[in-house]
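Appendix B, example 12.
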Amino acid sequence: MIAFICVHCYRNHMATQSNEQINSESRDELSIWLRDGWKIMLKHFPALVLIALVADVPLALIANASDNIENGLLAVLVSLSSIAIITPLAKAAAIIAIDKWERGEPSATVGAFVALLRNIHVLLAASILWCIGVFVGVGLLIIPGILVLILGQCLMGAIVLEGLPIKEAIQRSRFLLKSRFWNVLALFCMVQAVAGIASGVLEAILGTLIYGLPLEIITRVLTSPIAFAPLAVMFLRTSRASGR
């Protein structure tokens, strides 16, 4: 009986230690994504701003045009759809550039744009499917939409860096992130919040000098790298950890 109790206590102790180790590793993983992502952002900020122009100029133009749509709901749908479809393109280019920078390859920014143009049709198709999945999921009590949004965060990288077709890229993204869901959700929320705060501060500072569409473009391109650099690093770290 005493031996049984000792064995039971030992198993509980080992389980507790295992859970604590998993929680510690989870926190470390999130902090690494943020640290490495923002470190790369600061080091290569001008290049990442140039990459941000791929998405942020069209988004600013669409947002400006949607302001003239009388139907408020339609205007919101147009704005959100454009964000969901176009933003991943900049993230895809950032993944390529950061991968090249970390490997010490020259002309990383040019290579990122070349790869983006070469895969633009596949990336756009994947973005549209992802956008539809998120919207349908949100319509089904919101939570399914959040699941699709987070589990698709590696979709662009799987296409543009690993060369997978859309179906396999969807499966690859889900495989990479299903055990990291909460970490990726936390990362996504944190970088979006920080980028939003930075955008508000920058808009308040520059708003006395410029306004309208130029102000929106400038604030977008200067703050977008805050969000997509850590997300790009997240894909690169998880992809490499999986053996690719």
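The chain has ten helices and no strands. The two ends are 50 Å apart (CA to CA).
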